[in-house]
Design brief:
This protein is mainly alpha-helical. It has helices at residues 18-31, 43-46, 53-69, 86-96, 101-105, 108-117, 123-137, 151-168, 217-226, 243-255, 260-267, 272-298, 301-330, and strands at 5-11, 36-42, 78-81, 143-145, 180-182. It binds tryptophan. ATP binds at residues 11-13, 19-20, 147-149, 190, 199-203.
Length: 335
């Protein structure tokens, strides 16, 4: 039997941090053994906000190298660049024409990002989730592993697929497969080092709030040393009064590959002065092999180019027939 297919991507804006690794990429690496994985760099999404043309391509390579360095195997998984496949933009256009504007006006992420952009909100920013729906539906995946914050975009994706099926398909023969979100309940949600109630994010203006995957050991150690804590002794998970404590223990648990119970027992009598050096050491050691592999990949552009060219071919073999199917259902002339 064919393996179930999953698809996911990361926007190529800014550097990859611990939250991207523990919250997303590591999960894909686990899924990789028994799923057919399509993983891409969302560079079309990166230009929905003002961007620097000098770093756009480099960010794409950096993320591709990060995927592989973290354990995505380019021989079994398909790694590709969104802008390399015109199918994404083309299907997004068709979806634009069947998506009611008020569905997009409701999107929480749009409203938040638009607030930050002031007068400079592009049509593309509002259209972001429609492009995301195209990204997903082109591959007819069984599941889409994403964080909690993408839940609304996945619901929209399902709504767009259902609407297309309803308007242009027949009940017994839907045009597009409606995918399931794969949002892990116990999933790692890595929070900011300066505020345990906010997600670790590349858009946080403070560098101190996140650990970048390429941070040198001394930088990692310093960031952890300065991370926000509380005055209590004895460390614990799940105390709503102690979000930073929960977050730092969670990072330690994941990076040391232990169970939550084991970490809870190990740390219950510790103070921060004892825990922070332990966490710093664990983080540095866990990231060391990833960093080494990343550096090697970044200095071998020919190899990366080859992986992405290969990925494009494999992705297009799935995406192109899906787009054709939709165009036929819509009624375009076939020459
Ligand atoms: N919006 C996603 C994010 O910010 C990135 C993304 C774009 C994506 N297209 C996608 C994720 C398709 C999953 C599937 O993380």
């Amino acid at each position: 039997m064919a393996k179930p297919r999953i698809l996911s991507g990361i926007q190529t804006t800014g550097d990859m941090h611990l939250g991207n690794y523990l919250g997303a990429i590591r999960n894909w690496v686990e899924l990789q053994s028994d799923h057919e994985c399509f993983l891409f760099m969302a560079d079309l999404h990166a230009i929905t906000v003002p961007h620097d043309p000098k770093t756009l391509a480099e960010n794409t390579f950096k993320i591709a190298a990060t995927y592989i360095a973290c354990g995505i195997d380019p021989d079994t998984s398909t790694i590709f660049v969104q802008s390399q496949l015109p199918e994404h933009s083309e299907l997004a256009w068709i979806f634009n024409c069947i998506t009611p504007l008020n569905w997009l006006e409701r999107m929480i992420q749009f409203k938040e990002k638009a607030l930050k952009q002031g007068d400079n909100v592009s049509v593309g920013l509002m259209d972001y989730p429609v492009l995301q729906a195209a990204d997903i539906l082109l591959y007819e995946p069984d599941g889409v592993p994403v964080g909690e914050d993408q839940k609304q975009h996945l619901e929209l994706t399902r709504d767009i697929a259902a609407r297309l099926n309803f308007q242009f398909g027949s009940e017994d023969k839907p045009i597009l497969k409606v995918p399931e979100p794969l949002i892990r309940k116990d999933g790692a949600r890595i929070m900011s080092l300066t505020d345990g109630t906010k997600k670790m994010s590349k858009s946080d203006p403070s560098d101190q709030s996140r650990i970048d995957l390429t941070d040198a050991p001394a930088v990692i150690t310093k960031k952890i040393k300065r991370a926000k804590t509380d005055p209590l002794r004895g460390l614990e998970f799940d105390n709503p009064e102690r979000p930073e404590c929960h977050n730092l223990l969670g990072i330690y648990q994941l990076l040391s590959n232990q169970t939550k119970a084991a970490v809870a027992a190990e740390c219950q009598d510790m103070g921060w002065g004892q825990f922070k050096p332990l966490l710093a050491e664990t983080t540095v050691e866990a990231l060391r092999p990833i960093q080494e592999k990343y550096q090697a990949l970044m200095s071998d552009r020919t190899y990366l180019q080859q992986v992405l060219a290969n990925g494009k071919t494999k992705a297009q073999a799935i995406a192109a027939p899906t787009l054709d199917k939709v165009k036929a259902a819509i009624g375009f002339a076939r020459l």
